[in-house]
Write a structure and sequence with these properties.
By secondary structure, the chain is α/β, with parallel strands linked by helices. It has 18 helices and 5 strands. The structure holds zinc ion.
Length: about 400
């Protein structure tokens, strides 16, 4: 992992690099992350830089044999520890990080080392729901720490989710953390330091992660999903609480996008029919009520995604009407919905709709009754479109 690819504020990278250049590296560091931080990526970038054969002022070379091994998380001086537990394949009494290293590497590499405990637990599929970094892991750390680094440089021990260090395992590490062998670096990563033993905390130097800016999250989303519209990336980011993983999870997949476009189309067509006093069978209000009930039955996160998607689609339609079709790319399905709704989507209406939907989104986010909020939205939108007497 190169520093340039780690999604943390630049000030944090610069601070660590400066410590390395000045030879002031603390041998036991506590990466105090925020939820969704790229802490594991930063820890690997630091370990890689320390072992790189041709580092520049501010990054590893990415080309030397050592960097190539780091790119696969297979460098012999990189030791990874992470929560684990008994599974169908591995008996509880035998479990330790090394038993799951292949799965862990695959998961981390597939996600640019931007990883999350709940996702990892789903992959682990453990019978016991409390995975930990256990006493066997601690014994392995002591063993590796007693032998020299393979390449004669640094040996790095990364303990990801260090708050999951088992209470039997933690005391074994105290002496090592206090007086590490020459050339050893311990990086303990957590977003819950309050769950860690004071004796461990006091032996580490805290590296506090600053909040990631919305601009950085937006850029990263657009880079990861080139087909995402800048408006959608902006909207997703606004609701992600500076947490990139949360933003990434809000990115709708194809099947969900299809459902959301479908619900948008039916909801809006009924609003327009109601506002323009068309026959009851065209309005089909019962159908809209069923659609609202279906959305209300989804998880709160997916409900929010629905409203974000509706907002984004409305904006796209407005841009189409303003003859800015050069910058808007509609899919075939979106084009079909657009043809049905384009007459209603005036500049004035979209601006009113934008305000009403943003309010609805906030109410849904605050755990309001989604069925009531969407019903209210329906009549508000219809009122905007009803011709004045
Ligand atoms: Zn290198």
């Amino acid at each position: 992992m190169l520093f340039k690819d780690v999604l943390v504020p630049q000030e944090l990278k610069s601070r660590l690099l400066q410590q390395i250049r000045e030879g002031r590296i603390s041998h036991a560091q506590l990466f105090h992350c925020l939820p969704g931080s790229h802490g594991f990526g930063l820890a690997v970038a630091m370990a890689q830089y320390l072992c790189c054969e041709h580092p520049s002022e501010d990054d590893s070379c990415g080309e030397c044999p050592s960097c190539k091994q780091f790119a696969k998380l297979e460098h012999p001086d990189l030791h990874l520890y992470f929560p684990n537990c008994g599974t169908k394949e591995v008996e509880s009494k035998n479990c330790e990080s090394s038993q799951f290293i292949k799965e862990f590497r695959d998961y981390a590499l597939a996600n640019n080392l931007h990883i999350d405990l709940s996702e990892w637990m789903a992959i682990l599929d453990g019978e016991n729901k409390q995975p930990s970094i256990n006493i066997r892991d601690a014994s392995n750390i002591l063993h590796f720490n007693s032998i020299r680094p393979y390449a004669g440089r640094y040996k790095t021990y990364i303990l990801w989710c260090a708050d999951r260090l088992h209470h039997d395992a933690a005391p074994k590490l105290l002496k090592t953390l206090e007086e590490p062998e020459e050339g050893s670096l311990f990086i303990l990563i957590t977003d819950k330091p309050e769950r860690m033993l004071a004796t461990i905390l006091s032996r580490t130097q805290e590296v506090k992660f600053p909040r990631l800016s919305n601009e950085a999250i937006e850029q990263a989303l657009l880079q990861e999903h080139p087909d995402l519209s800048p408006e959608m990336a902006h909207n997703i980011t606004l609701h992600a609480d500076h947490n990139y993983l949360k933003a990434r999870r809000s990115y709708p997949n194809d099947e969900l996008s299809e459902q959301m476009l479908d619900s948008f189309s039916q909801f809006m067509q009924s609003v327009v029919a109601f506002a323009t006093r068309q026959p009851l069978e065209t309005v089909n209000y019962n159908h809209v009520q069923m659609l609202i009930a279906d959305i209300a039955a989804l998880s709160r996160e997916i409900q929010k995604q629905h409203l974000l998607f509706w907002l984004d689609t409305s904006r796209k339609f407005l841009l189409m009407k303003a003859n800015q079709d050069a910058i808007v790319k509609l899919t075939t399905q979106e084009q079909e919905v657009y043809e049905k709704l384009k007459n209603a989507f005036t500049l004035r209406f979209v601006s009113q709709l934008n305000d009403a939907m943003n309010t609805a989104l906030q109410q849904v986010a605050r755990n309001g009754s989604t069925a009531l909020i969407l019903t209210d939205l329906y009549f508000q939108l219809a009122a905007f479109l009803t011709p004045k007497q």
